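STRUCTURE:
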């Protein structure tokens, strides 16, 4: 299983926290019909994206990107000690798997210069903070945490109406510690790292592209969860805030990177996760690296 990729002058490490069954495909993707599932079942199972009971298999992971100048963590996964009662395997988790995976990639929490979150869902911000003497403190003490302003504002407003646990325990403590950079889409880090707005899953969802002068790699977050969505970009999961916009954004993204050398790194595709987008009929396929 490949946990390390090299493209251009970038080195990319996958930091897997969990890779497991998640939800039945027909439940998670409301537009998926039983006939469509039957037609795609064989290759989905062969790709490790579907189990024998038609449940989707997802990876929950971060990517660490080493540029010539910075070490950047994309999305911080699930986290420990977080109350997540609706997800038993995430609730008050205490294992050391994530930190061991970081160490296996030769990275310590102190090495991270930036933490960049594609959006603020529970499984993308969890390791932003850790519990220390009863308080949530930034896990990566030397990092600046990059949050999109549209996304931050959306969750600020949502949290004002009813408390959003992941925002309260994994985002606000970073802001209070003075480690947050709340940015717009023109934000860049040197000549290597840029923001690509990809709204729909959440209002401020973004992708991050890396490379000097061209996109050597792009990190697409929850723009798509499962490889079947490359074949059918109109398939939006039930978690998308705006499913129609998400579908439009997804097709536009796939068109943008189709038949290029850009390595596409989705958050949740099963191992090896990353690949290159190729055209296939009216849709696309992500040919794994």
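SEQUENCE:
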């Amino acid at each position: 299983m490949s946990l390390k990729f090299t493209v251009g002058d970038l080195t990319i490490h996958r930091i897997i926290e969990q890779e497991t069954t998640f939800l039945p495909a027909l439940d998670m993707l409301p537009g998926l019909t039983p006939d469509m599932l039957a037609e795609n079942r064989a290759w989905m199972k062969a790709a490790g994206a579907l189990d024998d009971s038609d449940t989707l298999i997802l990876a929950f992971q971060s990517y660490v990107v080493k540029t010539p100048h910075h070490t950047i963590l994309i999305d911080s996964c699930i986290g420990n000690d977080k109350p997540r009662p609706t997800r038993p395997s995430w609730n008050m988790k205490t294992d050391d798997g994530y930190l061991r995976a970081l160490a296996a990639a030769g990275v310590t929490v102190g090495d991270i210069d930036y933490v960049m979150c594609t959006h603020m869902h529970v499984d993308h911000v969890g390791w932003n903070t850790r519990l220390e003497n009863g308080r949530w403190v930034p896990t990566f003490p030397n990092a600046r945490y990059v949050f999109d302003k549209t996304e931050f504002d959306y969750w600020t407003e949502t949290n004002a109406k009813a408390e959003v646990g992941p925002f309260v325990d994994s985002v606000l403590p970073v802001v209070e510690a003075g480690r947050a950079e709340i940015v717009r889409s023109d934000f860049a880090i040197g000549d290597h790292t840029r923001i690509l707005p990809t709204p729909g899953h959440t209002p401020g969802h973004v992708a991050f592209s890396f490379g000097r002068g061209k996109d050597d790699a792009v990190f697409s977050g929850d723009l798509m969860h499962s490889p079947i969505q490359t074949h059918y970009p109109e398939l939006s999961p039930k978690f998308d805030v705006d499913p129609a916009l998400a579908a439009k954004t997804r097709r536009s993204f796939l068109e943008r990177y189709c038949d290029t050398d850009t390595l596409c790194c989705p958050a949740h595709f099963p191992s090896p996760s990353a690949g290159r987008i190729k055209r296939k009929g009216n849709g696309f396929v992500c040919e794994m690296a």
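REMARK: The chain has a mean pLDDT of 97.
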